[in-house]
Each structure stands twice: as structure tokens, then as C-alpha cells.
Amino acid sequence: MKIFCCLFALASAAPTKTGSFVDDDEKSIMCGGIITDNGIITSPGFDDQGHYFNNINCSWEVNIAGVSGFMIIPEVFEVEHDDNMPRAAGESMKCELDSLSINWQEKNELKIGDDSGPDEFNYKFCSSDIEEVGSYTTEAYESGRQTQKPWHTFLFDWSTTVAPNGKIKESSSNNLKRRDQQEKQEIPSSYGIHRTYIGDFIAPVQIKGNSATIKFTTDSSVVLRGFKLRIEKGVPEKRK
């Protein structure tokens, strides 16, 4: 098992979400690492200081060989509240202050004549001051179709793509977009899908595949308890 930096053991129960303003004139915080097996990721200062720090930029690369998927489970997640709070009806969270992001790609099994690119997932998390419970899945949508699985609605905004029962928005490179504008044609779905989620981290994220990038960035003011994420690998990948 190779787990470097900021992969740590059990932590005590987290306090309530009460932020504090901290003026950090400390040396640069070293954080991030590589995860190749089951493990724990915590924000810098989670165990010893009881809070994270200002002006940090951490990146963890998850690369677990031989599995078809893994889970990222938030055991503790308390970062600066969303900057778009309180929100008016219909408004979404922005998470433009302190935030945790998870990015990964999923590629379905290739078929003859299939030149499609991978589906790209970009999840961004920050804390909300609204009490939230729920779950989400990366498999809630299929390309060009409406939701095929039961959708559970809650009192907060989240979606792997758009609003429930909506259709997936297709995306592509700038070149394809320019060509699309010139030809006034829709971009083919074979160019891949861009799926996003912005909100609180209140339920496990299921990753299809064996790799992902986890990033944590903070601004220069409020700090909170931080996060503790458990990485739990799934079933072994089937041999062909």
C-alpha cells in the first residue's frame, strides 16, 4: 500500500460548523499525495490543529490498479459555507471560496466504429448552512435520454447533470464549438458528456474506473474543521 502525505487515521467527532477568521503567516503547507489502495485523506491540520489553513492548494491522485470502481466516502466534511447563501429560489450553490473538487473520467467499453471520448465528471463541494441528507449516483443519466432510474428529491440542489428529468448537456472542445456555430449543427453525442455537481458533500461518491483527482483549495479568510474522506475500492476488474 502506497499512501503518501495527508493520509491519516481515525479522528474525533467534528464540532458544529462555526468558522473563524485566521491570518496565517506560516510557512507553506505541504499536502496532497498518491493513493493506490484503500485509505484515508484528511485536510491539512485536521488531526493536530483541529482546522485547516488559509491559502492552500492540495491535490491527491487516486490510481487503484485492477478495480472497476471505488467509493469516496465523506466521514467528516466541514469547510467554509457557500458564498451564495442564502440563495433565492432557483439559485444554485457556487462554492467559490474554500472548496473540494473531484474530477474523473468514465469510458464505456469500446464498440466497433465508436470514436467517442470519455464522459467527464467534475464535482465541487463546499458546506451549506442548510441541513441536508441524501445521496447521488454517477449513473443517474444516460446520454440523450431522460432519467432512467428513480430520482430522490431533497431540499437542496444537486444533480450529476441538470435538474431531475432533464437531459444531459453535451460538451466538446472549443474547436468543435466553433465548428458547430459555423455549421449551425448540433454537436454529436459521440464527442462525450460533461457532468457536473456543485453542493455539499453529504453522501458517498461512486467512481466508475480506477482513477480520480481530488483537489482542496482555500482562500485567505475563514477556516473550519475540514474533511476526512475514506477511499474504499470496489470489485476487481474483470479479466478479458
Automatic annotation (TrEMBL):
- Does the keyword section mention Zinc? no
Annotated stretches, region: Disordered: 167-189
Where is the CUB domain positioned along the sequence?
31-139
Provide the leader sequence positions. Answer: none
Q: Which UniProt keywords apply?
A: Disulfide bond
Q: Which cysteines are joined by disulfide bonds?
A: 31-58
Q: Does the keyword Disulfide bond apply?
A: yes
Basic and acidic residues compositional bias, start-end:
177-186
Protein name, per record: CUB domain-containing protein
Output the lineage of the source organism.
Eukaryota, Metazoa, Chordata, Tunicata, Appendicularia
